[in-house]
Amino acid sequence: MGEGGSKRGPYAVGVERRQRILAVAARRFSDAGYSQTSLAEIAREVGVTTPGLTHHFPTKQHLLLAIVEHRFDVAQQIAEAAEGEPDGTRTLRLLQSIADTFAADPGLIDLFVLVSAETADPSSPAHELFARRYERVVEDIAGLFDAEAEAGALRRDIDYRALARECIAVSDGLQLQWVVTGGRIDFSALIRNHLDRIAPAIAARRARPSG
């Protein structure tokens, strides 16, 4: 092979196959339902044997958890790619962008709510996943708020970790309501309403001109 060419090694092929399995499983779980979808069906569409699929994901629950973890990764990537000046609206705009991303793939909202129901059981793998990822998400969002406060665009006397938890709780609660209403609520619009109410409460107080 020429100097500019390269062969894909087994690791690259394995990563690509794993991503393909996740994509097919997410779509099938969303379209047909988690309980109605078998690993054999997913493997057949991916073009691998069932043992080949279970090499990456031993059970259907492992596959479901991986899909939900990928959803956490997407939100984290959006946060890490946040751009713009810390003008007091950057973090709120970021949270809206994450909500819009979730709303654009409603099938993943169903799966997220399905997995989150298991988190109350400390022995469930979902419990450890959510506990670990929630702490990271809280710190990421709070850090973005803190940066805007340091820049003088937001108030400094607010517990932004508590605010981050509140924003996550509102998002998760609205996703649950989206599922139980059969998608009849406008998830993105309700998140926007919540963030619009927060914005003036956290904005830095500007000194009034004298005279």
From TrEMBL:
Name this protein carries in UniProt: TetR/AcrR family transcriptional regulator
Keyword Lipid metabolism: no
Organism lineage: Bacteria, Bacillati, Actinomycetota, Actinomycetes, Micrococcales
Domain (HTH tetR-type) ranges: 15-75
DNA-binding region range list: 38-57
Keywords of this entry: DNA-binding, Repressor, Transcription, Transcription regulation
